[in-house]
Write a structure and sequence with these properties.
Structural class: alpha/beta
Number of strands: 34
CATH superfamily of the largest domain: Hexapeptide repeat proteins
Strand order of the largest sheet: 8-11-14-19-22-25-28-31-33-34
Number of domains: 2
CATH class of the largest domain: Mainly Beta
Distance between the termini: 70 Å
CATH topology of the largest domain: UDP N-Acetylglucosamine Acyltransferase, domain 1
Number of helices: 5
């Protein structure tokens, strides 16, 4: 998430009432999670296990809960609770904006696009040409929809990320300030849910077709011309490359990559990254033929036991 204008390190420190290490005029251009940071961004870290990763990332400002040596060319914001202060910054730069109409006056809708009665179009939404948005679709603030997109009833674009910090008093939510971006020629079935990015974008690329009742988590990127069947669940921060097929009820864990033209059979569970141009099945998902050989071998176990008994 980039700020509307460049701020100084001192200005950011004032917003969150923190100490800082670096020049007061050090430029700060935005804030992002570590997997999408770019120079000029703030990244937060609150666990020693990830200090080095954050300090060595592309981010040039690190919001951290310990005074450490500042890398050359970077700056630090010292906070007793970086998670809390990251939320403060998100709310400051991306405050919640109440809707005042079913279709916001700040949204833009392209030529020949149809918004059916009962659909909700939030603030600062952009919808391209020749789109069809069916009744009872909810498009939250800031969503971008390209040309020739069809979205069926009950689908929700832009709900908050499922991202919490476990505190003694309960779960503390990381505020979502990102977007959902739907590129051209995408079809979304009924009752799909696509969460916004925490600070970046959850993206569905050109030509992808998604069946009913599919969930896609925050900051996930779905490539071009993918096919995703009903009841697939995809966690956050997943990269699915082009022309991947996920059949019904596939589950995908967070932070992995599925390679181009991979095919995953129904009810498989994906717990690690998969190479492209291969077919997979099972939980954990593995090479299709290998998995079926394993199943065939398992089925022979009772017969082998009986043979052992008869030889005793």
């Amino acid at each position: 998430m980039k700020f509307p204008q460049t701020h100084t390190l001192q200005q950011i420190a004032t917003i969150i009432s923190s100490e800082f290490v670096g020049s007061p005029d050090f430029p700060v251009e935005g804030m992002n999670e570590i997997h999408v940071v770019t120079p000029g961004d703030i990244v937060f870290v609150d666990h020693p296990k990830y200090y080095d990763k954050a300090l060595e990332s592309a981010a040039t400002v690190v919001l951290i809960n310990k005074k450490v040596e500042c890398p050359e060319g970077k700056a630090l914001l010292i906070s007793d609770d970086p998670f809390r202060d990251f939320n403060i910054l998100t709310n400051y730069f991306k405050p919640f904006e109440k809707a005042t109409a079913l279709i916001s006056s700040t949204s833009t809708i392209g030529k020949n696009s149809v918004i059916q009665p009962g659909a909700f179009i939030g603030n600062n939404v952009e919808i391209g040409d020749n789109c069809l948005i069916h009744a009872n679709v909810s498009v939250y603030d800031g969503t971008i929809i390209g040309n020739n997109v069809t979205i069926h009833s009950g689908t929700v674009l832009g709900a908050d990320a499922f991202y919490y910090k476990n505190r003694p008093e309960g779960f503390d939510k990381l505020v979502s300030g990102g977007r959902v971006v739907i590129e051209d020629d995408v079809d979304l079935g009924s009752l799909c849910t696509i969460d916004r990015g925490v600070t970046g974008d959850t993206t569905i690329k050109k030509g992808t077709k998604i069946d009913n009742q599919v969930h896609i988590g925050h900051d996930t990127v779905i490539g071009k011309k993918c096919l995703i069947a009903s009841q697939v669940g995809i966690a956050g921060c997943v990269i699915i490359e082009d022309e991947v097929t996920l059949w019904g009820q596939v589950g995908v864990t967070s932070g992995i990559t599925i390679g181009t033209k991979a095919i995953v059979s129904a009810q498989s569970g994906i717990s690690k990254s998969l190479e492209g141009n291969k077919s997979y099945f099972g939980t954990p998902a593995d090479n299709f033929r290998k998995k079926y050989k394993e199943i065939a071998a398992i089925r022979q176990i009772p017969e082998l036991i009986e043979k052992l008994k008869s030889n005793e």
